[in-house]
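Let's sit down with a protein and look at its sequence and fold side by side. Go ahead whenever you are ready, and we will take it from there.
>
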Amino acid sequence: MSQLKQSLLIVLSCLVLTLITFLAAEPSLAASDCVGRDCLQKEILAPDELLTPDEILAPDELLTPKGLPAKRSFAPNGCPGRDCIHHELRTQAVCRLQGSDKSPLPPTGRTPGWYKGLNTEIDNRILGGNIVAYKIRWFNGSWSNWYVTGVNDIDYKFNIGSNDMRRIWSYFTDHQHQYILCK
């Protein structure tokens, strides 16, 4: 399988998991007659109720379903029993796309430390959140595929002075880029 296909499959998998996590717990889309174990067997979403990729990845918009319930927690499908799983929404990360193909983020310079090793915590130290995926705009003007932090983002080059490996986000120092940041 080509690297392009692998990258696309990884990003698509992450987006599908995110959608499943948030949309499966949407109570307003539930059947009102759900009781007990039958709750798990009901359809939650009709195909025309899913968010489109444009709605999800619009710059500076939340990557969560619109109109989440104001309640502190809820059970999927309005399941009333004590044996139902209740989801706590306030503990979920909020993810935002920073930059875009048309409006990328500028190079950061060497000061922040993006080029230092394989540490996956550097994003949290610099940005106060976790980068789940990112793209680099190469000097020829083309965009990379999506890189997923800790999955497909180890650079094939290494840092010469320290002889240590690095992540692709090391190119943030001198390339335009975009990323999905979760806090």
Observations:
- Helices lie at 3-23, 53-56, 122-127.
- The radius of gyration is 20 Å.
